[in-house]
Fold these 2 entries.
Entry 1:
Amino acid sequence: MGEHLSKHYGRGEAVVSAIENMNFIIESGEFVAIMGESGAGKSTLLSIMGAMNAPSAGTLTVEGIDVYSLGQEQRADFRREFLGFVFQSFHLIAYLTLEENVMLPLATIRMPRRRKRAMAREALASVGLEGKGQRLPHQISGGESERTAIARAIVNQPPIILADEPTGNLDSRTSREVMRLLQRLKNDGTTVVMVTHSLACAGYADRVMQMADGRLEASPKAAAVPSQAA
Amino acid sequence: MTLNTIAIQNLLRRKGKAILILVGLVLGIGTVITVISFSDAVTGDINHKLEKYGANILIVPRTENLSLSYGGIQMGGISFDMQELRETDLEAVKHIKNYNNIAAMGPMALGAVRVNERPVMLAGVDFEEARILKPWWKIEGRQPEANAILAGAEAARVLNIAVGDTLEIAGNAVPVSGLLKPTGSQDDQLLFTTLLTAQALLGMPGQVSMVEVAALCAGCPIEEMVRQISEVLPGAKVMAIQQVVKGRMETLAQFKKLSFGVSVIIILIGSLVVLVTMTGSVRERKAEIGVFRAIGFRQRHVMRIILMEATLISIGAGVVGYLASMGATRLALMLFADNPHVTVPWNTALAAGALGMSLVVGVTASIYPALTAARMDPNDALRAL
């Protein structure tokens, strides 16, 4: 839940308002798409939701936790425990295999190595990449990279997935596969918040948060967006 | 998958940067170790050469008279109120703390005798010890055994004696077994024989007139040794031959200063190489660090990855640096040392020092880049892409 969230950059007359007095509630298990023109504040909002960008004003509450009342290191713990990130450019670590990339969120957790490997393989299998764990990121396609990024986001089963333009670099067929994956996560009870420019992708969401000039324009699912839900 | 796995995989799969840092450290550590081992080897060689200068401590019987000779010109007679110095007293010197630093100890019995109606000084020496104490001696003929004479060059000329002649000394017929080639020292004026023979001919059994001592200087403070010998020989006056001692010490000090100065500069350069390369590496890995932080790595986790990488590279650099420095030292000695027989032994302490130094330099120089990485704002790191 975001209450009166604002984010300003700069000072004095040069101040730029990225988000202005935004209020929203996202229910647990919901699939929400955030849409808007470039510069509307979508990515800023997502980074605030990701506990990585403190708002200038307002509060973000997740499962009863006032996220920005936490210290920096506690916010790192919060991210590890509650959030899974899917980045637009995948951001796979080039020198780690797919399996190792997927295991990254488990690296700081005390757990037998074998168990971590099993969890990574399970996550890779769930995105259709079984048997490809020993490949390096440069040896796979864009779609496989995105699916690996999703596997990394879900490996420790966080309750919330934040995806920033997850299909921005993919063709339409691969985009559909990725969206179905996100929808499946939603169906399994994970909350999914996705920033997208694509109406087709937004169609997979339960509702769309339309943004313009740092403000929320419409929260209900946009009538113009055709439902893609399976 | 642990933080260490990340560090190891980064080093294994991005070898370029790792090798660059490794080379920087190897050059630094290798040069320092080369300088140290080269200076140690050369110092040892110099010590060895300096020992050829002969005695650097003199033990004489204690006397209350002042010396009346200057520049070889004797102005007065022999002192008669000397305390006696006996050969058996010298056993006590074997028990001083720095006895191991004594290379040779040569007792001498000195006295005037008449040969061919001319007075001449007879010196009884231990010829085995004399090889170390007077390495410049060159003998024509052979080294005398008991009841034989080795004549100094000037004494032989004045007394008109040659190898094979027989001299009459104190009523005894003593053959000349060898002649000493000119040394430019007082030895040219003397007749030499074994200590026992001289004591018998001079009528001073068991007595010695003076003792020459050659001390090894590396790690032995000559003045401290003089004090130790004085303590065990209270009836003797023990003197350091200051010029030789100071010369030795100054030579060693110069080498150490040079080594220290070069080492400090090289270490600083090595640290800078690591600092600059690691900082560059951290900047290049901004996205990666942003991902680490975004998925919940704490600052200390990021620091640990960077410092683990630095530690692994430093260990490698320490080992390679030591091995390379051994090769470089041998090469440098071949090129620059006068003595081709100077050896460079494997030195465990130096190897441990190389490893320790590499770790200290590598890890210390990586602290700033590690802190920079750890303090990176994840949002900035990801937005910068």
Entry 2:
Amino acid sequence: MNKLKQLLRSDKVAAFVFLAPALFFFGLYMIAPVPMSTYYSLHRWSGIGEKIYIGLQNWGELIKDPIFWLSFKNNLKLVVVSIGTQLPVALLLAVFLSSKTTRLAGLFKTIYFIPLLFSSVAIGVMWRYIYDTNFGLVNVFLRNVGLFSWAKDWLGDPKLALYSVMVAINWRFIPFYMILFLAAIVAIPEELFEAAMIDGAKGIQVFRHITLPMLRPTIINAAVLSLVGALKFFDIIFAMTGGGPHHASELMATYMYKRSFVDFRMGYGSTVAVAIFLIAMVLSLAFLRFTRRSSELD
Amino acid sequence: MRTVQNTVKYILALFWLFVTGFPLFFIFMSSLKGMMEYFTSSVWALPEEFQFGNYLQVFQAGFHKYFFNSLIVTSIAVFIVAISASMAANAIARFRFRYSNLVYSLFLAGMMIPMHITLIPVYNMTRQLGLYDSLAGLIGPYVSYSLPVSIFIFVGFIKEIPIELEEAAVVDGANRYQIYWHVILPVIKPAISTVVIYNMVMLWNEFVYALVLLSSPSKWILTLGLWNFRGEYGIHIPLVMAGLVLSVLPLIIAYVFFHEQIIKGMTAGSVKG
């Protein structure tokens, strides 16, 4: 009994006891699935019944699969649009909210924030009605102002679908980065701004020489989040177009879902999943490397 | 120059207010219109007569059940997260053991793992455990999904606690377990409320695991219910809008009371890229 007590008192054992519950869930549902999916990717498997080992056949198929590469390209477009539009707009809005001249900032902030409380399904459902060809907000508005030829089949036209969905994605994620930047701006020591004012710096100069350099780490973090988020993106596109029409808005993750849970090709689906994992890892590490090097050059 | 900048700022701010606010106004107003009225009236028009019956109909169509299911699943998952994450964070922040840093990085790496790589293994595991199509089957994935951010928040908080507090407890003869229970837990209450509220919001909106792990309508949670509701009642648009409003409303109310915790959770999860 005493021995047990002593054992429990040692740090090593206590550490194990304290970590055990979290490691149990995390190991089972987050870590173990990575090698498991890799293992499944070497098999032909319907999800139920026998797995048949087929070596690298799935991977060979993936490399030659035009739909996978199309969705990969769509993911890259999403990366570019996300980083290129979400971050600048979010930054401007955050600067606006942080300026003390606006008494209404609190109200603005609350309304800006609301899209963050929507589930992706709610956003998908809502934007489907906004884009509806006949009764949707967008087309009704365009017809009201006389721009009849601008009214389009936003989600049904393969040339437009991906970009239409990106607007909805921006609607949801700009407030997120805005909140991030706002928190970072508020954390900048007030003295820096005051010193700049005394030196005669005005609006845009203060922004360029104080706010922007101080925000650099936050902006890099936001860019990495945006990059990884865009590479693994799934739910709003799934809820709005399901990847259609004709794979026009297909992403790697929606494609993975279809192959796995619609066609029940779990082996091939796992191959796509592992590919998403590898691509996200390689690109985010490369990005971090790149930003680190460029900051060393400064 | 000054005024030009201010004007640009205001124009952008007002534009974004419209972009965010108008769709919200639109779904709320549409949710109170009649089915035919939606098609015939202007999108700018207020309902001729507020059809509050839409909301009642949505509830009767099963939303009360989905609502209850979401509440049960998120509550249980968040409870487990608060306990297990604070315990793990306590060990990571305070105990000296060889793999402390490794374990911490492993948890943080969880924020970057695309959840789709877990989908098939989790689906398979859930089936084998006999938990497929049950609310219990969602608990495991939800807990593990919430752990990284929660542990990160707790570790940061515990490291800020003056070590003297614990030293005093040791002098009084307390062991690791008593210190966690009597010293750490009471002090980290603010972090617990951040973790609980933030994860509640995140899990309330979760969709992918529910889509893959549930099938019968009696088990659906709110997101899945709304998704299928649109499929079934797609033509009665005001009804779908009412369902949409109902699914977001609890979170908007939560935001009014707990915006500090929600924002803290969101920014905390992103500091570590």
